[in-house]
Amino acid sequence: MNIIPIHVLLVEDSVADIRLTKEALRDGKVVNQLHVARDGEEALNFLHQRGEFTKAPRPDLVILDLNLPKLDGKEVLSDMKNDDSLKSIPVAVLTTSSAERDIIESYSLGANCYLTKPVDLEQFLRVVAQIEDFWLGIVRLPSVIL
């Protein structure tokens, strides 16, 4: 049986959060391939298949931090949701900010959910596992570009 992995793009600049997310998804129930972009510019290059990412797969889900170097997460989100070939990709914002203005702006830009990163290690792992359970286990994702 040939299992096709779900492609997840994690847009995150924190080495610790990247490591924890990898660990949580590796231990998850859904076969997935995690790709990491360390800043907003790299994320857009991945998504638009530019430069070193010309053969990058279209992600099935993007987990997006807001506080990024070069281009912030809101700029990445805005670009994605204004591009017909990317706007159907679900975006889960996972960030340290619990500011109401960031929540409102993220949803107005088209975020599919907004989660504040827990500071507790076990809670962080649980949140990533719940993202996986919902977005990769329960929800039916689009398989083609609309």
Written account of the structure:
By secondary structure, the chain is α/β, with parallel strands linked by helices. It has a single domain (6-138), classed as Response regulator (Rossmann fold, 3-Layer(aba) Sandwich), CATH 3.40.50.2300. It has helices spanning 15-26, 40-47, 73-81, 100-108, 121-138; strands spanning 6-11, 32-37, 61-64, 91-95, 113-116. It has a five-stranded parallel beta sheet, with helices on both faces. Strand 4, helix 4 (100-108) and strand 5 (113-116) form a beta-alpha-beta unit.
List the helices and strands and how they pair.
Elements lengths: L5 E6 L3 H12 L5 E6 L2 H8 L13 E4 L8 H9 L9 E5 L4 H9 L4 E4 L4 H18 L8
Parallel strand pairs: 1-2, 1-3, 3-4, 4-5
Helix pairs in contact: 1-5, 2-3
Q: What proportion strand?
A: 15-25%
How far do the termini sit from each other? 28 Å
| Alpha-beta content class | alpha/beta
Q: Sheet bearing the most strands, described?
A: 5 strands, parallel
Number of strands: 5
Q: Give me the CATH superfamily.
A: Response regulator
- Based on the structure given, which CATH architecture is correct? 3-Layer(aba) Sandwich
CATH-defined fold name: Rossmann fold
CATH class: Alpha Beta
Helix fraction, binned, reads 25-40%
Our Rg estimate from Cα atoms comes to: 14 Å
Strand order of the largest sheet: 2-1-3-4-5
> Overall pLDDT, averaged?
91
The helix count comes to: 5
Low-pLDDT residue intervals, each spanning 5 or more residues: none
What is the total number of structural domains?
Answer: 1
| Shape category | globular
Compressed to H and E, one letter per element, the order equals EHEHEHEHEH
